[in-house]
TrEMBL record:
The keyword rRNA processing applies. It comes from the Bacteria. The lineage of its organism: Bacteria, Bacillati, Bacillota, Bacilli, Lactobacillales. Keywords: Cytoplasm, Methyltransferase, rRNA processing, S-adenosyl-L-methionine, Transferase. This is Ribosomal RNA large subunit methyltransferase H. It catalyses: pseudouridine(1915) in 23S rRNA + S-adenosyl-L-methionine = N(3)-methylpseudouridine(1915) in 23S rRNA + S-adenosyl-L-homocysteine + H(+). S-adenosyl-L-methionine binds at L76, G108, F127, G128, Q129, L130, T131, L132.
């Protein structure tokens, strides 16, 4: 199995890079992890609705160019389903059982995601109604993916 994160924007904060590197290392015993950082579009101050839609469209095209047909795609979106960690672990396990060898997670930029990206998703997932910086969301997601694998192993890490 391979886990791929497709994200908009570059990580700048050292502590986030270090945390993600740590979880990537931990996950390496279970799966290969690939992180693809895509450029974000510059958003003008006081951008119009049309400008925001154009930005989302451009970012969406970049995202979709990194997603293959055979991948199980989980898009992080505030309107998505919320899961306890045990259920999230089961989602990952079930995707594998259903024949998906690659699971791709998508995290949009500061404006969110284009409707086309959401349409491509096999699952829309939410971590709740809180607004989190998309850079921090990467670290939170990596920890939860690691936790999901540890749950599958019956490890006490989850407790």
């Amino acid at each position: 199995m391979k886990i791929k994160l497709v994200t908009v924007g570059k990580l700048k904060e050292k502590y986030l890079k270090e945390g993600i590197a740590e979880y990537s290392k931990r996950l390496s015993r279970f799966t290969k992890v690939e992180i693809i950082e895509l450029a974000d579009e510059k958003t003008p101050d006081k951008a119009s609705l049309l400008e925001n839609q154009q930005i989302l469209s451009k970012e969406g095209e970049r995202i979709l160019s990194k997603v293959l047909d055979r991948e199980f795609v989980i898009v992080l979106a505030i309107e998505g389903q919320q899961f306890p960690s045990e259920k999230f672990s089961k989602v990952i396990e079930d995707a594998s059982v259903r024949g998906f060898s690659d699971i791709t997670f998508i995290i949009g930029g500061s404006l969110g995601l284009s409707p086309k990206v959401k349409e491509r998703a096999n699952l829309l997932m939410s971590f709740g109604q809180l607004t989190l910086p998309h850079q921090l969301m990467r670290l939170v997601l990596m920890e939860q993916i690691y936790r999901a694998f540890m749950i599958q192993q019956g490890s006490p890490y989850h407790k």
